[in-house]
Design brief:
Distance between the termini: 46 Å
Number of domains: 2
Family: Belongs to the isochorismate synthase family.
Catalytic activity: chorismate = isochorismate
Structural class: alpha+beta
CATH class of the largest domain: Alpha Beta
EC number: 5.4.4.2
InterPro entries: ADC_synthase (IPR005801), Chorismate_C (IPR015890), IsoChor_synthase (IPR004561)
Largest sheet: 13 strands, mixed
CATH architecture of the largest domain: 4-Layer Sandwich
Keywords: Isomerase
Strand content: 35-45%
Radius of gyration: 21 Å
Number of helices: 8
Helix content: 25-40%
Number of strands: 24
Bound molecules: ligand ISJ
CATH superfamily of the largest domain: Anthranilate synthase
Length: 427
């Protein structure tokens, strides 16, 4: 790895050596994570956790995806890999998280030093190092993570009332024919008494939001219900969400609400834009595709969504990695809008905040380019606060169409803060 793309800042230029071995079930993967440099991508207890940094690259700007793909090609081409399992996620892998917007676009790919993965009833450990690998570590459950202590929430960049006015402005511009749909988000700031030990919210998100992908990459964590793209041995899949209704906590009422959502023309329209944008971006890579005609309702503890699982076959002649597919799909109408360019310009004009890596692709990739990238929703970014405290920035957004009502959209955004908000609670 002598030459690196200009938009990339790598940490390791050495040749990597990776070795994966099968191990006995060590119990819940999240319980194995140490406090220092943990990474995670898990759903229903399966997936990947990792710790330490064997190599990483930071990229930025409009070239952030291309620069990361180039770096990964170089790293994986020069690596020596011994993998006794050869299942998705074993062998050399990286985890990554990408900014929503081109500017500043700060993004990261990380190759952990240790990865523990689970798929079905198989569990493995991968140890990755420079030129030589250490023996696999003992896998033992770590003590309960440190609690955040008292947590105080405050408005972020734009307060609730001001945000309603921004939504109203978007509705007006949609009705004036400028665009069809735009996704607008806001942030909340949580101040935690102690610096955040990210394993605290991760454990809670992993058990409360089993239908979601619980993730952490370099300070961005959450539990997303939306899979931007999975590439696995020539098959691509994407779970598209758009159209939301809040749950009441009363099962019978929620079922009636689910039926209302499935018939709501406003939500079906919003959903249709999102499905079309994903299908159109995947089509050039696929020989055949399955796009269901109508969505199903995905039930989460806080909200219900209209959901469509899109699938396609990528021929051997198409060598696009899952990250390139994610880059082609980003930003889908689920987090940008329709038409994409007009919506993205409107977001930066009126939203009033930098999204950072919220609503960008987050996930993992192996040396063959297979892997999974979700959309970083129901997420937050954390760092140090003043005087030994912690600071967490939570994000939530909503698709705005012609019939959107600002007050209901604000309530919907509040409901989307709930997963991370609740996961920070408890002392
Ligand atoms: C933008 C978010 O969610 C997206 C917007 C949705 C909607 O407007 O109905 C639903 C799911 C997501 O695609 C978010 O959670 O922040």
């Amino acid at each position: 790895m002598t030459s690196t793309p200009s938009a990339a800042t790598p940490t390791s230029l050495g040749r990597l050596v990776a070795r994966s071995i099968e191990v006995a079930d060590p119990g819940p993967l999240l319980d194995l994570l140490p406090e220092d440099a943990p990474t995670a991508w898990l759903r229903r207890g399966e997936g990947i956790v990792g710790w330490g940094v064997a190599a990483s690259v930071r990229t930025s700007g409009p070239e952030r995806f291309d620069a990361a793909v180039d770096w990964w090609h170089q790293v994986s081409a020069s690596a020596v890999v011994r993998d006794e399992l050869a299942v998705p996620g074993s062998g050399l892998i990286c985890l990554g998280s990408f900014a929503f917007a081109d500017d500043p676009g700060d993004s990261v790919l990380i190759v952990p030093k240790v990865v523990v993965g689970r798929r079905g009833d198989r569990t493995w450990v991968t140890v990755i190092g420079d030129d030589e690998v250490s023996p696999p570590p003992d896998l033992v459950a770590q003590p309960e993570p440190r609690a955040p202590g008292e947590v105080v929430f405050a408005d972020g960049s734009v307060g609730g009332t001001a945000w309603e006015a921004v939504v109203a402005q978007a509705v007006q511009r949609i009705n004036a024919g400028e665009l069809e749909k735009v996704v607008l988000a806001r942030d909340l700031i949580a101040s935690t008494e102690a610096p955040l030990d990210v394993r605290w919210p991760l454990r809670r998100l992993g058990s409360e939001y089993e239908m979601c992908w619980t993730f952490h990459v370099d300070g961005l964590f959450g539990a997303t219900p939306e899979l931007l793209v999975r590439r696995e041995r020539g098959l691509v899949t994407s779970r598209v969400l758009a159209g939301t209704i809040r749950r009441t906590g009363d099962d019978e009422r929620d079922l009636a609400l689910a039926a209302t959502l499935a018939r709501s023309s406003k939500d079906l329209e919003e959903h249709e834009y999102a499905v079309r944008s994903v299908a159109d971006s995947l089509a050039p890579h696929c020989t055949s595709m399955n796009v269901p005609e109508s969505p199903f309702v995905l039930h989460l503890p806080n909200v219900m969504h209209l959901a469509t699982d899109v699938a396609g076959v990528v021929p051997d002649t198409d060598s696009s990695t899952v990250l390139e597919l994610a880059a082609a799909l980003h930003p889908s109408a689920a987090v940008g809008g329709t038409p994409t360019d007009v919506a993205v310009a409107m977001i930066s004009e009126i939203e009033g905040m930098d999204r950072g890596r919220y609503a960008g692709p987050v996930g993992w990739m192996d040396a063959s380019g297979d892997g999974e990238f979700g959309i970083a929703l129901r997420s937050a970014e954390y760092g140090p606060g003043p005087n030994g405290t912690g600071r967490v920035r939570l994000f939530a957004g909503c698709g705005i169409v012609a019939e959107s009502d600002p007050e209901s959209e604000l309530a919907e955004a509040q409901a989307k803060f709930v997963p991370v908000r609740d996961a920070l609670a408890g002392r």
